[in-house]
Amino acid sequence: MIGRISGRVDFRGEDHVLIDVRGVGYIVYCSERTLATLPGPGEAASLFTDLVVREDLLQLFGFPTLLEKEWHRLLMSVQGVGAKASLAVLGTLGAEGVSRAITLGDWNAVKAAKGIGPKTAQRIVNELKDKAPAVMAQGVALAQSAGAPALEAETVIEAPAAPAAEPAAPPSSVSAQADALSALANLGYAPGDAAAAVARAAQEAPEAGAPDLIRAALRALAPKG
């Protein structure tokens, strides 16, 4: 399994990038959002990758962070969602936006992705809503491991003559949301309720730190009446 590729950008297409690694060019398919963050030809780049293997096809899909790669894997587990559909969702919402939309049951946000119809969007939300809290809680650990050379037994391909650019770190709010989720879990709140409250708080105040998110979430979770 190829878990990450580091090398020099040779070419950028509409839906992929060609990265030269020790004289071998790897075609890596990416979302529009990811492609927009990559440097121009001749410059160093690094992407976490997921290899899709079929009888007559091998394709690499690239992601700037491990968090986004994890969401890609979960999206791919939904019936009717292939790799390109997953990239469309991630390209429209980003990893954090996917977390928020699924946690809040906002299938309309998912439907905004190109090629995703209402039935597929609802299926994504329904099948992944119970997994979203765990992914959000893993945000801090994934961010910390973003600079690691590999995940478990995954293969890393690197070009020593071209120092790899560090993958873009997830937005700071990802860490804040993960910290808030951890605090609410320690207080005994159910993961689903806590995740929904934190997601709403983050949606209303995107730049809020963990303490503010915790306070807002606690207000939302407080018994009414």
Give a quick precis of the structure.
48% of the residues lie in helices and 20% in strands.
- Numbering strands along the chain, what is their spatial order in the largest sheet? 1-2-3-5-4
Largest sheet: 5 strands, mixed, barrel
Tell me the name of the CATH homologous superfamily of the largest domain.
5' to 3' exonuclease, C-terminal subdomain
CATH T-level fold name of the largest domain: DNA polymerase, domain 1
* Relative strand content: 15-25%
How many angstroms separate the termini? 54 Å
Question: What structural category do the secondary elements indicate?
Answer: alpha/beta
Using only C-alpha atoms, the radius of gyration works out to 18 Å
CATH architecture of the largest domain: Orthogonal Bundle
Tell me the series of helices and strands, N- to C-terminal: EEEHEEHHHHHHEHHH
- The number of helical runs is 10
Identify the overall geometry: elongated
- CATH secondary-structure class of the largest domain: Mainly Alpha
Count all strands and give the number: 6
Number of domains: 3
| Fraction of helical residues | 40-55%
Question: What low-confidence regions span 5 or more consecutive residues with pLDDT below 50?
Answer: 146-172
Report the mean per-residue pLDDT as an integer. Answer: 81
Overview of this structure, please?
The chain has 225 residues and is an alpha/beta fold. The protein has 3 domains: 2-64, OB fold (Dihydrolipoamide Acetyltransferase, E2P); 66-137, DNA polymerase, domain 1, CATH 1.10.150; 172-220, Helicase, Ruva Protein, domain 3 (Orthogonal Bundle), CATH 1.10.8. 48% of the residues lie in helices and 20% in strands. It contains 10 helices and 6 strands; from the N terminus they run E-E-E-H-E-E-H-H-H-H-H-H-E-H-H-H. It has helices at residues 32-37, 66-76, 83-103, 107-111, 118-128, 132-137, 139-144, 172-186, 191-204, 210-221, and strands spanning 2-12, 16-21, 24-29, 44-54, 57-63, 155-157. It has a 5-stranded mixed β-barrel with strand order 1-2-3-5-4. Helix 8 runs antiparallel to helix 9 (191-204) and helix 9 (191-204) crosses helix 10 (210-221). It starts with a strand and ends with a helix. The model is unreliable at 146-172 (pLDDT under 50).
